[in-house]
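Feature request, filed as a ticket because there's no other form

It would be nice if the structure record came with a short human-readable summary line next to the C-alpha cells. Right now we just get the raw output. Example of a typical job, pasted below so the devs can see what we mean:
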Amino acid sequence: MDRHRYKERDRSLRTLGFSSYDEYLRSPIWHWIRARTLRRAKGVCKGCHINRATAVHHERYSVAALLGIDWRSLVAVCAMCHEMAHAAELDKSRPSSPTEAAAAPAELPETWDARYDAAAAPFWARPAGRGR
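Raw output as currently delivered:
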C-alpha cells in the first residue's frame, strides 16, 4: 500500500477513535461489516469468481468505507486474490491510467482459467477506477 493510502487510513481511523488498524479489525463494527460483505458476495470471491470468499479487501480507507457506508470499496475475496490485490497495489509496473492499462494486458495468475473473458477478470487485474 502506498504512503498516501496509509495516511488516509490512519487519518480515518483517528477520526473514528481507533488508535490502530489492528484495533479497528478487532472492533464489532468491522466484524459486522466483514460478515455483511461476505454475505452480500454469497460466499463467492469477487476476484476470481471461483473460490470461496474468506476475506474482505478495502480498496479505499475513507471514513465512509471504514464505517461500512461505502460498500463499493469493500470487496469479498479468497486468500489468493487478496494477496494478489495487495501485490498489485505495490507493483510499480502496474499501469497508472486506464489508457495505459488498455494498451497492456493484465497479467493473471497461473490458476486463472482462460475461458473467462476480460469483463470477468479479477478486480485487481482491472484498471484502477474502472469496474472496481
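Something like this underneath would help us a lot:
The chain has a mean pLDDT of 77.
Residues 3-91 form one domain.
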